[in-house]
Amino acid sequence: xxxxxxxKRLPPGPQRRDPQTSAVExxxxxxxxxxVSAYREGDRTIVLLPARMSEAEEQRWVGxxxxxxxxxxxxxxxxxxxxxxxxxxxxxxxLAGRATPNTVRWVTNQNTRWGSCTxxxxxxxxxxxxxxxxxxxxxxxxxxxxxxLLVPGHGPSFWRLLDAYPRTERARGYLEGVVAAGRLPHLxxxxxx
Length: 193
Hints:
The protein is built from 5 helices and 7 strands; from the N terminus they run ββββααβββααα. By secondary structure, it is of the alpha/beta class. Helix 2 packs across helix 3 and helix 3 packs across helix 5. The model is unreliable at 1-21 and 189-193 (pLDDT under 50).
């Protein structure tokens, strides 16, 4: 597959990511005949197009694919009220309803933590970076913060609370992989002629 990456910035449109934080990379392939696809890769959106497509068609399809991805993502993202309801459900299911936060909300100023908890205030904050991750990962982070309402540190009694959640290790592995991938240098794309 021959690929010609080009980073482009598009003007904001309905339901599009902020163009200041999200670049669109176009990859053209002579093997791709009719189909167009797109996916998120970190803060970039990759759009795969046939090599023969004109600039005008490219612009149209990039817009279509950005809107399609945004619509899919908005269906997966919970609002603060949904997050609070999810926290209540997880507390009931795994902590016998003992963890009752006063507030649960998304925040955009947590870039080194997935979540945080202030037991004295009963507040839980989850990083916006979790949005769009698998549900079991979000549930794990939310449950982790709920457990901090009951046990402030990360001692044995804290981890015993999380033993009830069957996907703890899988979720932790997923998050460790995300962190590790973020540390990798961006390698040039392999090309075959």
